[in-house]
């Protein structure tokens, strides 16, 4: 990003900026740059995830690099990282997303250090989709943007970081995703992805009946519940959700609380949701859950199969409950 005369940030000329502002890149690696898209990350749509995944796949298959860095705006980086983790399972090299809270050309920018760290991660890190931000390496589908006004812009609420850049690198190698674990359902990259499921954060006093007519055109909804999965399950909500499921819709529940795993059967309201046909998202981030559902449907899976797969740990995106 760069700030023009009117002060509004806009996408930068990346080739020129990298050479100008990070000249020591040449000391780290031999690299080439390709512009897949140059847009504000708030404008990214699912078709760009597919384009990016296919371009990465070609480089991986050609074996023409040791790692790949994706420079990405921070607003939707967690969504892109999660989507790529499902679209590119079983990677043979690291794919690292990074960006900055301040533009590369700005004083005190964090983007410069993030780019350098991402390149080192791409050379030496685990072979999966990652996010490098402020000296920490996160699994891509476990990361979320959790801060606006400081450089700790990203965190991994329910999974430890995979690496840390200090004077020397520290790696949590026991947490790396095994390269051999490639879910057969995720191949090849689908031609299209469906629209995103509706995400509805529940608040006290929400009149769900007002949303019911609009649900008819939605293939899935994610209700963000209180705590371990509680909603005020009154007659109106029960009737609306039961009817929606009976008509072919899918209902998924995740918690509004960033840390911890949802347990729908813990309290009576959560148990009632299970009886209506709802499925829980365990400890997935919003980004991981939304993109997982989209990719599963993009592969042509039916409602029953999606409902089963959403609770399985496919590419490191969730913690399966112990039996």
TrEMBL record:
Residue ranges of the TM segments: none
Cited PROSITE patterns: ASN_GLN_ASE_2, ASN_GLN_ASE_3
**MF-aspect GO terms:** asparaginase activity
Q: Where is the L-asparaginase N-terminal domain?
A: 5-173
Where's the Asparaginase/glutaminase C-terminal domain?
202-308
Leader sequence residues: none
Annotated positions binding substrate: 41, 74-75
InterPro entries membership = Asp/glu_Ase-like_sf, Asparaginase/glutaminase-like, Asparaginase/glutaminase_AS2, Asparaginase_C, L-asparaginase_C, L-asparaginase_I, L-asparaginase_N, L-asparaginase_N_sf
Q: Where is the active site?
A: 74
Q: Show the SMART domains listed in the entry.
A: Asparaginase (SM00870)
Q: Would you tell me the protein name for this molecule? A: Asparaginase
Q: Which organism is it from?
A: Acanthopleuribacter pedis
